[in-house]
Amino acid sequence: NTNTISPLTIEQYITVSSKVSSDNEVSVMPKVSGTVKKVNVSLGDTVKAGDVLFEIDDSDLKLQVKQAQAGLQSAQAGLQSSQAGLKSAQANYDMNVGGNYQTQLDQLQSNVNTYQIQYNDLLTSLEQKKELYAIGGASKQDVDDLQSSVEKAKLQLDTAKNELETKKTQILEETKKTSQASVDQAQASVSQSQASIAQSQVSLESAQKSLNDTKVVAEIGGVIGSMNISEGSTVNTGSAAMTIVSMDKIKVAFNVSEDAINRVSVGSKAYVTISSVSDDPIEVSVSNVSPSADSQTKLYTVEAYIDNPTGEIKPGMFAEVTFVNEKGSSCIVVDRDTVITKNGETYVFVDENGKAVKKIVETGIDDGKK
Length: 370
Hints:
With 370 residues, this protein is α+β, with helices and mostly antiparallel strands. It has helices at residues 59-134, 140-212, and strands spanning 7-22, 25-28, 34-39, 46-47, 52-56, 215-217, 222-227, 234-235, 242-245, 249-256, 269-273, 282-289, 300-307, 318-332, 340-342, 345-352, 355-360. The mean pLDDT is 87.
């Protein structure tokens, strides 16, 4: 039999083994420690983000929330009392600086007025006594005694006036100082109560958050891939209680030698066969290519992703990945079994006018059949 040859495209493939893995696997870490009260899922269950996976005993935390609420209520009551005290201190300040201060000044002014009247009366009497003395109606002793009384009254009047002027400022400042001290003390009490409320609110929020965290929810949707807890067991914040494996997209990672890595790039086509699911290859595009080789294996890691809406492909399944190592266009392509290699020569037989003529050839790409 003879075959007519014509320019064709030929590709050489490399097939490597791999395992599929999840694109996203999350360890479920509880945020509070305690005893598991209820488990809502089992190994292999499908969950959605936000589903409650398990619950931790919350009796102690409920008590902490109640105590924090009572502390906040007490602090709020303390603030109301402090605010009332501040209002009272401010009212006393206004009264003392206004009414009491003026009362004291009025009393001092009254003293001045009294001494002024006494002085004026004595001064008038002195003038009259002097007139009587001039006509012999009064003795010199009478005039001197009255003069002494006038001078004494004048001294009392001057003293009262000086006291009035001095106390105008002194009384006001002392009244302000005393009253302001009460206001400042009341204001400090209000500030302390406000700080106590803020601290109580923080304590309540912390206790409430811890209580909420006793219901452990799924951060992502997927399948429960491992279970490390059961009802009655103890969980700690530093340990994974279970894992959730995202199944929507599956990752295939395979290793390529240095001879072939430069023929693979992001966007290159590859074909993945997962025989446990189907013998039909799945076409994928390369997503990531490692820029450096593994220090031990000297191989480069290449990654591709497969959409897995039905969840048939499970992490851990074996896969064969085939990708184009070499490609030729417009090549002379023949069946592989027509090429003979013997005694160091590679040749084919060509039909020339009905005769089989031996032709030495140099082979290129070999895909196993062509």
